[in-house]
Design a protein that fits this description.
This protein has 315 residues and is α/β, with parallel strands linked by helices. 47% of the residues lie in helices and 12% in strands.
């Protein structure tokens, strides 16, 4: 059994903490909105009042928060993770944030006597619940080997890709694909629909072909029926594309498809759709194509989908 602290118990972070509890570990958890983590307390998690308290109770501390600003807020200050980190502890951040800021925090963790890994994930709620989550890891190899058994209890694919910040760069490269694939599927369905093929037929036909990635298979149907609460909303996706564009500018890598996706996401925000799952890009492109706002039969939102929390929903 390992003493674990977990900061950020949103839609993904909470379910990762649940898997660690189920594996028999002691978990001390902090969430910005404590009531939303009560279900984990009911399963044996020890709630704590601050990120510092989560770190003080732990050999290994995890965090999973929405963005770079949120990461700073749980790491810094008298109640932050850094203030409570034990000497020799490992801190693994699973958020998708700025690689430069993560490296800066890693240096501060090292100065405090600990070691930090960036460990963002690939997958969604459904991927996690099926036990198929993939995890990229960047940072010290010895710290990675220490935490690797815990990560394997979260998902079966754990890959160290390099030093500090490298896993975040890998995750950003990964996430720019999500928007590109949804946009491509949306364009294909719209082309078929304007030619007389019902969108439901087009979606199902395309998802039964070689073009359908695992992500497309679960999210492609969101084109027709969005989840009642977003798994990964427009604002979160645009945050990741902006990180990608910043990295492309820094590394002199042209990212024209990413840039276009960012503009369509801006259009979605201008239409008041920022809280919808990013698959709402299909609705934006429908309007641009002169089609009705929603395809036939899409008046009722999907039910029974996982509800998001304080943290990111589709990684």
């Amino acid at each position: 059994m390992t003493e674990i602290g977990f900061v950020g118990l949103g839609v993904m972070g909470g379910r990762i903490a649940e898997r660690l509890l189920a594996a028999g570990h002691a978990v001390a958890g902090y969430n910005r909105t404590p009531a939303r983590a009560q279900w984990l307390a009911d399963r044996g998690m020890t709630p704590v009042d601050t990120p510092r308290a989560a770190a003080e109770a732990s050999e290994v501390v995890f965090s999973m928060v929405a963005d770079t600003e949120a990461l700073r807020s749980v790491v810094e200050g008298p109640d932050g993770i850094l203030a409570g980190l034990r000497p020799g502890a490992v801190y693994a951040d699973m958020s998708t944030v700025s690689p430069a800021v993560s490296r800066e925090i890693a240096e501060r963790v090292a100065a405090a006597g600990g070691r930090m890994l960036d460990a963002p994930v690939s997958g969604s709620v459904s991927t996690l619940e099926k036990g198929e989550l993939a995890i990229f890891v960047g940072g010290d190899e010895e710290a990675f080997e220490r935490v690797r058994p815990l990560l394997l209890e979260v998902g079966p694919t754990v890959t160290r890709v390099g030093g500090s910040g490298h896993a975040l760069l890998m995750k950003i490269a990964h996430n720019l694909n999500l928007t590109a694939q949804i946009m491509a599927l949306s364009e294909a369905v719209l082309l078929a629909e304007k030619g007389g093929i019902p969108p439901e037929t087009a979606v199902e036909a395309l998802l039964d072909t070689v073009i359908a990635s695992e992500m497309m298979r679960y999210r492609g149907r969101f084109l027709l029926e969005l989840p009642e609460e977003a798994w990964f909303n427009v604002n979160m996706m645009q945050k990741d594309l902006l990180l990608a564009l910043d990295a492309g500018r820094e590394l002199d890598v042209p990212l024209p498809i990413t840039a276009l996706g960012n503009e369509i996401l801006t259009s979605a925000r201008a239409m008041g759709l920022e809280d919808e799952d990013f698959a709402v890009l299909f609705r934006v492109l429908r309007r641009m194509a002169g089609l009705p706002d929603r395809p036939p039969g899409r008046d009722t939102p999907a039910s029974g989908q996982p509800s998001p929390d304080d943290g990111p929903g589709d990684r």
